[in-house]
């Protein structure tokens, strides 16, 4: 049996009070509608899901790209009218049509698969099956329509909340509007939906029409947290919490220790290997990957970064960076875009690295900034070291070769190279390349012999100008 999927995403979402289309509001690393597409793809067997767009359609199409097909609902005349827009694209292409919503991100693909299975089983028993649908029972109707049944428990109709009588409003079996329709029956009857007093064509009217025609409707109950529709920022926060807990549960069942799930946020796009420990207050985002046996936190944010095996990140921020195995940073460290720590690098508290490579075994003291630099293996970077990489117009590179020792409070005024095994004294301002194995100190930094024979008046003005112009950035 071939299934097609239609996702309704044309509404204005006025209660979100936002310029951004409702279905594009982000939830844990994905736009809201991406969650709906992800679930629908598990059941659409022969073609991508069809998304019905209207308000903000250019942005929606920009976001989803070619992973779905699109049809446009030019006039927003209700859900029945929205599905009708997909008829030219899908009629004759599938045996059954699944209808879901772009603002219902908590609906699982597994639930949709179960609904498809129910439809197939019921259709095998009775060819006059018009639809299989989900129902939910809860005290807060959240604007959902009510399910009307006869004395034998058979579905007779769905009444939208706005049209309910006081008695019908007391019904707690609700319609979340997730349907699997017999495709041939759907396309024949969609154009027959009557216009509602509100001036819209309700997809839910098809249920009463099917019963009147002697067709049957099957139902399947669904958990409350799966059909959490989003109309306001409050609903958005509630859905985010539902999905956040699911993501954390998935990682914990896969062998990740999460000490305090209530304060831990992991986006859906993050991958974490077994035996990782996440301490309280962590936020992992984007395409981040955490290697086995690493300890993250407490209170650390990692964005689009690769963390190797056995690393430690404490009270720190890592963004678009790489930490190879057995690195540690923090507390209060910051790896900015382009930072790459090779194996075994230690970076102390209040350190910052940007667009730089720190080679294996580098030790970087606290209160230091390394930007636009290439640092070779086993270099010691003393506390307070700064690469002055920006002259007000351009960035310049600092190169530090293997086994160099950079004394505390050294300023490396780029472009500059410190040779292998060279040393700088505390407080040195290095404006010229330091040959391998050489000690320099002072302002500007010179080897000891050169400093003894240099008078203040003899200081090269090009060095002082370079010192004045350069800054870390």
UniProtKB/TrEMBL annotation:
Q: What class of enzyme is it?
A: transferase
Question: Where is it localised?
Answer: Cytoplasm
Task: Give the domain of life.
Answer: Bacteria
**Residues involved in UDP-N-acetyl-alpha-D-glucosamine binding:** 8-11, 22, 73, 78-79, 101-103, 145, 160, 175, 231, 336, 354, 369, 380
Cofactor(s) demanded:
Mg(2+)
One GO BP annotation is: UDP-N-acetylglucosamine biosynthetic process
Name any one Pfam family assigned in the record. Answer: NTP_transf_3
Q: Does the keyword Magnesium apply?
A: yes
- What are the recorded GO MF terms, alphabetically? glucosamine-1-phosphate N-acetyltransferase activity; magnesium ion binding; UDP-N-acetylglucosamine diphosphorylase activity
Catalytic activity reads: N-acetyl-alpha-D-glucosamine 1-phosphate + UTP + H(+) = UDP-N-acetyl-alpha-D-glucosamine + diphosphate; alpha-D-glucosamine 1-phosphate + acetyl-CoA = N-acetyl-alpha-D-glucosamine 1-phosphate + CoA + H(+)
Q: Which Gene3D superfamilies match?
A: Hexapeptide repeat proteins, Spore Coat Polysaccharide Biosynthesis Protein SpsA, Chain A
Please list where the region (Linker) is annotated: 234-254
Q: Which UniProt keywords apply?
A: Acyltransferase, Cell shape, Cell wall biogenesis/degradation, Cytoplasm, Magnesium, Metal-binding, Multifunctional enzyme, Nucleotidyltransferase, Peptidoglycan synthesis, Repeat, Transferase
Q: What is its EC number?
A: 2.7.7.23, 2.3.1.157
- Pathway assigned in UniProt: Nucleotide-sugar biosynthesis; UDP-N-acetyl-alpha-D-glucosamine biosynthesis; N-acetyl-alpha-D-glucosamine 1-phosphate from alpha-D-glucosamine 6-phosphate (route II): step 2/2; Bacterial outer membrane biogenesis; LPS lipid A biosynthesis; Nucleotide-sugar biosynthesis; UDP-N-acetyl-alpha-D-glucosamine biosynthesis; UDP-N-acetyl-alpha-D-glucosamine from N-acetyl-alpha-D-glucosamine 1-phosphate: step 1/1
SUPFAM superfamilies named among the record's database cross-references: Nucleotide-diphospho-sugar transferases, Trimeric LpxA-like enzymes
Q: Which residues bind Mg(2+)?
A: 103, 231
Assembly, in brief, is: Homotrimer.
Q: Tell me which family the UniProt entry assigns to this protein.
A: In the N-terminal section; belongs to the N-acetylglucosamine-1-phosphate uridyltransferase family.
Q: What does this protein do?
A: Catalyzes the last two sequential reactions in the de novo biosynthetic pathway for UDP-N-acetylglucosamine (UDP-GlcNAc). The C-terminal domain catalyzes the transfer of acetyl group from acetyl coenzyme A to glucosamine-1-phosphate (GlcN-1-P) to produce N-acetylglucosamine-1-phosphate (GlcNAc-1-P), which is converted into UDP-GlcNAc by the transfer of uridine 5-monophosphate (from uridine 5-triphosphate), a reaction catalyzed by the N-terminal domain.
- Write the protein's name: Bifunctional protein GlmU
Organism of provenance: Litorilinea aerophila
């Amino acid at each position: 049996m071939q299934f097609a999927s239609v996702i309704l995403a044309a509404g204005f979402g006025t209660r979100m009070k936002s310029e951004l289309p409702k279905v594009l509001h982000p939830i844990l690393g994905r736009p809201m509608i991406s969650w709906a597409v992800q679930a629908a793809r598990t059941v659409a067997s022969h073609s991508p899901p069809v998304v019905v767009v209207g308000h903000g359609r250019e942005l929606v199409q920009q976001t989803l790209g070619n992973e779905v097909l699109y049809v446009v609902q030019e006039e927003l005349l209700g859900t029945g009218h929205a599905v009708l827009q997909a008829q030219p694209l899908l009629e004759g292409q599938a045996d059954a049509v699944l209808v879901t919503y772009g603002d219902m991100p908590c609906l699982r693909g597994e639930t949709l698969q179960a609904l498809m299975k129910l439809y197939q089983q019921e259709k095998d028993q009775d060819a006059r099956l018009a639809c299989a649908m989900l129902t939910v029972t809860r005290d807060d109707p959240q604007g959902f329509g009510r399910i009307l049944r006869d004395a034998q428990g058979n579905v007779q109709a769905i009444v939208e909340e706005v049209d309910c009588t006081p008695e019908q409003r007391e019904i707690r079996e609700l319609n979340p509007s997730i349907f699997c329709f017999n495709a041939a029956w759907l396309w024949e009857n969609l154009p027959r939906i009557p216009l509602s007093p509100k001036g819209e064509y309700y997809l839910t009217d098809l249920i009463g029409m099917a019963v009147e025609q002697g067709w049957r409707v099957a139902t399947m109950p669904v958990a409350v947290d799966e059909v959490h529709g989003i109309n306001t920022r409050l609903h958005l926060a509630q859905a985010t919490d539902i999905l956040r807990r699911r993501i954390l549960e998935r990682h914990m069942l896969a062998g990740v220790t999460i000490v305090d799930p209530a304060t831990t946020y992991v986006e859906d796009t993050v991958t974490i290997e077994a035996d990782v420990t996440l301490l309280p207050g962590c936020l992992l985002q984007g395409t981040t990957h955490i290697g086995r046996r690493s300890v993250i936190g407490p209170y650390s944010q990692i964005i689009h970064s690769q963390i190797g095996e056995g690393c430690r990140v404490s009270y720190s921020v890592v963004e678009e960076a790489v930490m190879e195995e057995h690195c540690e940073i923090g507390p209060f460290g910051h790896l900015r875009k382009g930072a790459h720590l090779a194996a075994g690098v230690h970076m102390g508290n209040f350190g910052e690295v940007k667009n730089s490579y720190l080679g294996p075994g580098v030790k970087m003291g606290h209160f230091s900034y390394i930007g636009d630099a290439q640092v070779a293996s086993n270099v010691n970077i003393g506390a307070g070291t700064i690469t002055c990489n920006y002259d007000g117009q351009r960035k310049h590179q600092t190169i530090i070769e293997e086994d160099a020792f950079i004394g505390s409070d050294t300023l490396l005024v780029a472009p500059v190279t410190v040779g292998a095994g060279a040393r700088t004294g505390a407080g040195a301002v290095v404006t010229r390349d330091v040959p391998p194995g050489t000690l320099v100190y002072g302002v500007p930094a010179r080897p000891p012999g050169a400093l003894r024979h240099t008078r203040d008046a003899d200081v090269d003005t090009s060095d002082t100008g370079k010192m004045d112009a350069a800054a870390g950035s």
